[in-house]
Structure formats: C-alpha cells, structure tokens
Design brief:
The complex is a heterodimer of chains A (about 425) and B (about 400). Chain A is of the alpha/beta class and about 425 residues long. Chain A folds into two domains: about 170 residues, NAD(P)-binding Rossmann-like Domain (Rossmann fold, 3-Layer(aba) Sandwich); about 240 residues, N-(1-d-carboxylethyl)-l-norvaline Dehydrogenase, domain 2. Chain A has 21 helices and eleven strands. In chain A, the strands form two sheets. An eight-stranded mixed sheet of chain A has the order 3-2-1-4-5-6-7-8, with helices on both faces. In chain A, strands 9-10-11 form a three-stranded antiparallel sheet, with no helix packed on it. In chain A, strand 10 and strand 11 form a beta hairpin. The longest helix of chain A is centred in the C-terminal third of the chain and has 19 residues. The radius of gyration of chain A is 22 Å and the shape is globular. Chain B has about 400 residues and is of the alpha/beta class. Chain B is built from 16 helices and eleven strands. In chain B, the strands form three sheets. Chain B has a five-stranded mixed sheet with strand order 1-7-4-2-3, sandwiched between helices. Classes of the chains: A alpha/beta (about 425), B alpha/beta (about 400).
Chain lengths: ~425, ~400
C-alpha cells in the first residue's frame, strides 16, 4: 500500500536512526516515544537489555500502542553502543544529570559517531559548553541541548540550546525535525543556568515555597492557584516535579547566577530537610510533599513536618470573581479584577504575578532572544499564562505602575514596547487561564 | 434558478486538543474564543455582523445548557440585539447552521452572517457520552441500553459493504493511518502528537480494543471539545471587504454549491431502502450530486475532500459515494494512494474527524473552514498544492442527514 505515511529516513535524509542513551530514564522513555511516534527509527540503549526492554514497554504504554515497537530497537551499551552510534543520524543523551557520567559517554560517542550525525543532550541543569569541552571539532559543531519538558508527549514546549561552536545548519536541521515532525513549540535558549523556562518558573515556585512558613500551603495554593494563569497550583506543581528536582534546579541557579531575584532562589530549609528525609512529593506518596493523599483523604504539610487534614481556605472575593470570569472566557476582565482588588491578599497575589512578569521579561537578551520566545516557553512548557499576555491584559502603562509600586525591576522590553507584546490571539493563550 | 453568491470571508477554530472541562470552562468560553479569534483574524468589525447561527448537537445533555444562539450575544456588546438561532441535526448540525445563514444571505435579508459550530463533550465519561450520542439515532429502537451504539451502527455499515461487495479491514486500517498521519501536519488537530500506524490499526490489541462489531478504537473519531466560527457574506459586503483588504473579489472564496438530503433515521430502514441501489446510502450520494450540480462542477475539478469520517467505514463509504471509484470499489482508491496527501484526490488533509477531532456540532463548520484554508492557500503543512475547489461532506446520524458543499473561487 502507499508509502506516504510518516517515515523519514533521518533528520538529514540519511539512512540513520535516533540512538537514545539512558533510554530507561523518564526522559529517555519520553523521548523514545516522541521520536518513534514521529516516524523515526529509534534505538533505546541502557545498561542491559532487560532495562531497555522494560523501558520499551513503558514507551508502548505512553503511545498506547504495542506496534510502536516496529520503529524501535533495544540494546545495551556494552554490546550495542559502538555499532548503533556509528549508524546514527542523531544521538540523544538522556542519562542521569551527572557531568562526569555524560562526558564519559560523549567521549565514546565522539569516537564512533558518523561525521555529520547530530548529538543532543536533554540536560536541564548542566552547561552545554561544559559538556562539549574536550570533544573533537566535528562533535562540538554537531552538539547542542534539546531540553524537553516532562512528559514530552503531552508538553510540546522545547528549548534548543546551542553553545558557541554549534553549527547554525545543525540548529536549523534540529529545528525542522522538532517543529515539523515532532510537533514541538520551540525556542532557542541561551546556555545559561537552567536555560529560560525553568529559570523563570522556578523563581516563582521557590518564591511561593519561601512563603509557606508564613502563610501555609492551602492558602498559597488557593490565592495563587490556576486563576493566576497556570494549569496547576504552584505548591502542587512542586510536588509533581519532585522536591529533589526542585532542590537541584533551584540550588543550581542560586549557585551560578547573580540577578535581581537572587534571594528568591534560596532553597527553604524545610525543603532541604524534607528531601533528606525522603519527602519528594508525588513520587513518595507515603511520605508526601506539600500534600499527602491517602485514598480520598488529603492532608497538607506544615513546615514543622506535620500533616493536617486539608481544609479549603475561606473564599476570597476577588479570587472567586477571577475564577468566575475565566470560566466564561473573560480573561481581560479577570485581570482587571486582579489589578484593582483591595486587601492584603490581593497585594500579595499581585506582587507575585508582577514579580513573574518582571523576572521573565528581564531575561530577554540573557536567557532568550525575545519576549515572544519567553511567552512561548512559559505557555507551552509550563502551561502558564505568557507574561506578554498578562502585560497586554493589564495594559503596559498600568503594568509599569504596578512594577514600581512593588519595587520590581522594569524590563527594558516593556519600556520600549509599542502596541501588543504578545503575538498570538486568545485562541493561543485562553487555555492558560483556568476557571 | 441562480441564487446570489455566498462568500466565505474567514474564520478560526479552537485547538481541538484542549479539554475545556479541565480548564473549568463553560461552553460560552469556547464560543467566545472562537468568535473573538475569527473577528481578529478576519479583521471584521463586530458591528458589521447582522445575523448569527449556531450549530450544536447536544449542549443540553453535555453541558446542561440550551438556547446557544443567545450566547453569541454575550461575546461582544455590538452583538446585542442581532437575530440568532441554534440548529441541530446531530453530527451535521454545523452544516445546517451554514445552510441557514447562507439562505438568509441568498434571500438578501442580511449581508454578513456569523456561523458558530460548538460542542463541549469532555464533561462526561466515555460511556455516558456514547449514550448521549445515541440520541442521534432512533434512541429507543437503536441505542437505549446499548453500550456505544454508534460504533456498532457504523460497524454495520461496514458489514453491509462486506455483504454486497466484500470489505477488508486492512483498508479501514489504512484509512485510519492516513487520517492520523495528516493530523500530524495540522497544528490544531487533537491527535497531532499521537502515535498511529497501519499495523496498530489493523489489529485488535491491549491498546486497540474492539468498540463494537468490526469497529476498533483506531477506527473511531475522537471525543472532542471544540468551537469554530466563520463569516459568510453577500456580494455587497464581500466587495467592500475585498476592497478594504486590497483584494480582488475573485480572491474571496464562495460556497459554489450545496446539497442537503435526509434519509430515514433507522439504519435498517435505510439498508432496506437501498437494497437494489448500487449506493448503500443513496441520499448521501444525492446530496453530493446536488452540490456538484449547483456548483456546476464534476469530481475532476475538485482538488481535495473534507469528509465525515466519524468511523473509517464512513470514509470508506464517502470514497465511492463521491464517485472516486465505482460503487463498492473504494478499496482501489485506498490501495492506490489516491486519498493520501499528494494523491490524486486527497481526503481529509486536515486529519478529518479521526485525526483532527470531532466536536459534533462544530464539525461541519470546521470542514468549511478547512476548505476555505485550502482554496486560499492557507492550510500550512497540510496544504493541497494549488487547490482551487474543495468539497465537504458532513453526516448526521447513521447516514441520515447528509450535507455537502463545494467551496472555491
């Protein structure tokens, strides 16, 4: 029958596969599904074949199709790395976040790879330039970061992270592959700590985590819940991501950057202690995170480490009004409520939302090239309202007034903006405001 | 008798992958986003809209909300006072709204009509939703107490083909795979990032369960939340609009022809009626012929088709009913790659109901919008090269209400 179904030979129309290193990790599995579903031939490599075989079953579950294995070969590093890397069009590294481990593998890849094959890392924390250091010129020209967000089959936002030596033609080829074949919503991010999306999102998440001792979990997740432009409440998000992952990302940024929000990246002690005691969030259901769920019972943490029965916070009028307006698609009116509401709760909510805008748009020129790119990654990587949309809905002049009121940095891009900041329409951003 | 022309100025659809219940949204939010998006993308002033028609199948059931025409007024203060109405003909509801709006324009009553198709379906689980869809059949006779009645009815359409002409499931699997493959090119398609292959579609498996009769999950269209808004205009308004946008009037597509036929609602009655007819659904065939005759075109002039693939069997039926093959020989077009993007007669470049999604009352409007995108060269990665005329077929019930359009310049 007709052979018009998706089946590209390779990213560069060569006869090569996508070889995934660390294919039994969460990102390895997600990436294998993504490439195989896009019609690529995939090789999943792990320490041994059994691990790779188990990972393949998880790929089948993600794809909801056993037949996806038609596109997938499994193997072990010892027996299969040399042969498969030699024939690879793309080597996609998804090993644990360990510089020495990754460098060790890249040394082998450098030895075996075809001269025009692309090598990508899915790291979210390590420097792309550091990972490329000491490799051959050909390797360095063909090397870059492809930062997927978990789970990639549901979250389309993706950062391409070149380093100084990455060949522009390689960036173009990867862009084509990710956009056209894999349905990614792409930005090019700078090789800065945590790149663009995580840097911006975890600043706000950690800022809210710092407020837990003062305000409590249930109150903060209610006040700054989905109606403030996010698919999920912030502390519930940290539980989903994992406290250990939150710690790794936030400490990495705190250590390696010095910017206007430096203090907000300081990891709260209670999180550090929680992680040390094995409290990681959703992945440790018995120990819990900010929330602990047992059947239908929901408990919330207080920072002394005790759990209490979850009690819904007392409704706050402006929050309920915002939710009601989102429910009927009136996003501008909802942001007007946020802008004008009275009371200390509204002050706190505004300060956090404006802090997000300030920090996100101030990264233009540092972590990303444009406010449009930052809008894209916050919208499609996190399901958060793009900062540009919030500015447009509040009005640029009023946004600047509010930033002054909260003594927040005014992003240069805001001062020079003419007309709308956000390039899309309500059809693009509407989903980020939840009722 | 020649009627005044009806022009299509543009429109937008929501992202069919969205789950509006997860966003905790009321059905008015779907309508609102689609209409505001359409006003913006078409650069039309809300004050110019003189009449509005809403296509919707079952908001009373899915969203406990009727009177959807009135919700258009809620979108923009300028709409306050305009005449609105809601139209229902099961999965053909969207096309009926288009027919009502275009009839008003042909009659000279109004110059600019807004047509909105909308359905919010993810408010209930699959079993309840399947039961609601059963009301598109004769519920008491064909659906009550039956789990997933519609897959079973369209499975029987396949059985009827098998009985009269022979039917291989591998051809149905290929139809599914083509729709999913096309959907990967459509950034608003529900399944754009889903895995599908012919082998997966061809077999019953843990992840591809039989839903009813010969219909497996891979043969089914999706449960979808979605809204689509388009503008239809008289020649007078279209001329002004073209001038404003520095376009020639001929650059603005029009509805060249339409067909609308209704068969007996019960599937068994339909089959008995067509027993000696080479076409299994002769009224569907007639709706297509009517559209072609009114447009003054033959199949050879059509560049692509957006058809109603609520199940693979309904697309299989559309292939011979459009006249792409002789009756009963749809498999030839499937085998020869005719229906694929790049084939002689691409079917559902958008991905269709299987790939793009099937928000029931919005589907007919989505098809017309996709036809508009094709003939104006704005279909992006699923563009059919050089498409001048595109046909649509939208079906309500088990082949009961059939609406066809030809769109072109």
């Amino acid at each position: 029958m007709g052979g018009l179904l998706n089946n590209p030979k390779s990213v560069n129309n060569q006869n090569g596969a996508v070889v995934i290193l660390g294919a039994n990790g969460v990102m390895g599995i997600g990436a294998a599904e993504l490439f195989a579903a896009g019609g690529y031939r995939v090789v999943m490599l792990a320490r041994d074949r059994d691990k790779a075989a188990q990972a393949l079953e998880e790929v089948q579950a993600l794809a909801r199709a056993e037949a996806i294995s038609e596109n997938i070969e499994i193997g072990a590093y010892n027996s299969d790395l040399k042969r498969t890397v030699e024939g690879a069009a793309v080597v996609f590294e998804a090993l644990a976040e360990d510089l020495a481990l990754k460098r060790g593998f890249f040394e082998q890849v450098d030895r075996y790879r075809a001269p025009d094959s692309i090598v990508a890392t899915v790291t979210s924390g390590l420097s792309i330039a550091e990972l490329a250091r000491g490799r051959s010129e050909s390797f360095r020209r063909h090397f870059l970061g492809i930062h997927l967000f978990n789970p990639p089959h549901l979250i389309a936002g993706t950062e391409i992270v070149p380093h100084a030596d990455t060949d522009p033609a390689v960036i173009d080829a990867v862009r084509q592959m990710l956009q056209k074949r894999l349905g990614r919503r792409l930005i090019v991010a700078a090789d800065r700590p945590a790149f663009a999306g995580n840097r911006i999102a975890f600043k706000t998440l950690n800022e809210i985590a710092q407020l837990v001792p003062q305000y409590g979990v249930a109150f903060l997740d209610y006040l700054l819940g989905p109606h403030t432009g996010r698919a999920m409440a912030p502390l519930a998000t940290i539980d989903l991501v994992g406290w250990d992952v939150h710690q790794a990302i936030v400490e990495n940024i705190y250590e390696k950057t010095q910017d206007e929000a430096h203090a907000l990246f300081k990891l709260p002690d209670y999180i550090k202690q929680g992680v040390a005691q094995g409290r990681m969030g959703d992945k440790t259901p018995a120990r819990g995170g900010f929330y602990r769920r047992t059947g239908k019972r929901v408990e919330v943490l207080d920072t002394s480490g005790r759990y209490y029965e979850f009690v819904a916070p007392k409704p706050i009028q402006f929050v309920e009004r915002m939710k009601g307006l989102h429910r009927v698609g009136r996003y501008r009116e909802s942001l007007e409520v946020l802008k004008t509401a009275d009371g200390s709760e509204a002050e706190l909510a505004r300060r956090i939302v404006l802090g997000y805008i300030s920090y996100a748009l101030s990264r233009v020129g540092e972590a990303a090239a444009s406010s449009g790119d930052i809008d894209t990654i916050m919208s499609y990587g996190f399901n958060w309202a793009p900062p540009g949309v919030i500015v447009d809905l509040l009005g640029a002049a009023d946004t600047i007034e509010l930033l002054k009121r909260y003594e927040l940095k005014i992003p240069p891009v805001l001062e020079t903006a003419e007309g709308k900041l956000y390039a899309g329409s309500v059809l693009d951003f509407g989903r980020t405001f939840v009722g | 008798m020649s009627h005044p022309p009806v022009f299509i100025l543009g429109g937008t659809q929501t992202d069919f992958a969205r789950n509006w219940s997860k966003e905790n949204k009321h059905i008015v939010a779907l309508m609102r986003e689609a209409v505001l998006g359409a006003l913006e993308s078409s650069a039309i002033d809300a004050r110019d809209v003189q009449t509005a028609h809403v296509g919707n199948f079952a908001a009373e059931l899915y969203a406990h909300q009727g009177h959807l025409g009135a919700f258009v007024v809620d979108v923009d203060p300028a709409f306050s006072g305009i005449p609105t109405s809601r139209h229902e003909a099961a999965c053909a509801s969207g096309s009926i709204a288009i027919l009502a709006a275009s009839a008003e324009i042909e009659a000279g009553r109004y110059d600019l009509a807004l047509v909105v198709g909308v359905e919010q379906m993810k408010t209930v689980d699959a079993a309840v939703g399947g039961d609601y869809l059963g009301t598109a059949a004769w519920y008491e006779r064909e659906a009550r107490g039956i789990e997933f009645p519609f897959p079973k009815l369209f499975g029987r359409l396949g059985d009827e083909y098998d009985r009269r002409y022979g039917l291989k499931d591998e051809h149905l699997a290929h139809i599914a795979a083509v729709n999913y493959s096309n959907a990967r090119r459509n950034p608003l398609a529900q399944t754009r990032n889903w895995y599908m292959s012919e082998n997966h579609a061809a077999r019953q498996s843990r992840y591809n369960a039989v839903i009813g009769g010969r219909i497996k999950a891979s043969d089914c269209s999706q449960v979808t939340d979605g809204a689509v808004a388009i503008f239809l205009a008289s020649e007078k308004y279209a001329r002004e609009y073209a001038k404003r946008r520095r376009l020639e009037l001929v650059a603005i597509p029009r509805i060249l022809g339409w067909g609308h036929r209704t068969a007996p609602i019960e599937f068994d009655t339909k089959m008995a009626e067509s027993r000696s007819n080479p076409y299994i659904l002769p009224h569907t065939r007639q709706a297509i012929l009517d559209a072609f005759a009114r447009a003054g075109v033959s199949l050879e002039q059509i560049a692509a088709i957006e058809t109603h693939d609520c199940f693979t069997t309904s697309e299989y039926m559309a292939i011979d009913h459009f006249g792409i093959t002789a009756p009963g020989q749809s498999w030839k077009a499937v085998e020869e790659g005719v229906i694929e993007l790049g084939g002689a007669m691409p079917i559902n470049p958008s991905g269709g109901l299987i790939g793009a999604g099937h928000p029931v009352g919005a589907t007919g409007v989505r098809q017309l919008l996709d036809a508009f995108k094709q003939v104006t060269g704005n279909a992006g990665d699923y563009q059919v090269e050089g498409a001048k005329k595109v046909a649509t077929l939208n079906i309500g019930g088990s082949g009961t209400t059939s609406c066809a359009f030809v769109v072109g310049n």
